[in-house]
Every structure is written in structure tokens, then in C-alpha cells.
Amino acid sequence: MNINPEVELFLDKLNHPLIAEIQRIREIILTTDEDVDEEVKWSSPTFIYRGNIASFNLNARKYVSLMFHKGALIRDTSGLLEGDGKEARSAKFLNMEDIEKKKDALQAVIRDWIKVMDGD
Per DSSP, which regions of the chain are E strands? Predict the structure, then answer.
């Protein structure tokens, strides 16, 4: 798991009511594939594999919002990704129970991004 100290420091200082949920989603994404990295971009933890995968939208306070920058490229059959914009999609997680319920779908979305970026 590629833990970035800059992201750790950022999250340690973050005042957010769902910090535990943010950390759990982060753990799920980073353990999905050892080549997924993270850094702070746009004042938010951002996940990277051959381009930006997704960033947390930290303005949401009642749920965790994860914005997939080019989510339209991902073949999501689970319904995890919402939106119909030209590029971006988002995923919403209400609480720990919801995160665990959506864990497999989140990991599938990350794996599909990797396949797309690898040209598979």
C-alpha cells in the first residue's frame, strides 16, 4: 500500500465529521492494487494510476463523495458511479456500513481504471 506522508499529514489536520470513513475508503483504494498512488491535489487526497483516478470532494459533510475525474471511461456495472457528464462521475458513501457494502464495487471500478489505462 503506497501511503504518502503528505496525504497522512493533510488528513491528520482535516476537520471533517466523516474522517474515519474517508480513511477506510482510502485504505480500500490503496490496497486494491500496489501501483495506485496518492497525493494531495486541489486541496484533497487524490488517487493516481497513469493519471488522476479520483479525488475526495471534502465539501460534502453528510456523506463521503469521491469524484472520478474521467469516470465515463470506466465500465461500472454495479451502479456505484453516478452522473452523466462528459467525463466525471461520482460515488457516494453514507457511512461505514455503506462503504463495506460497496467495497467490491469500488475495487472493481479501480481495477477497471487500471485496465483502461493499460490499454486492455
Answer: 37-41, 44-48, 52-57, 64-68, 89-93
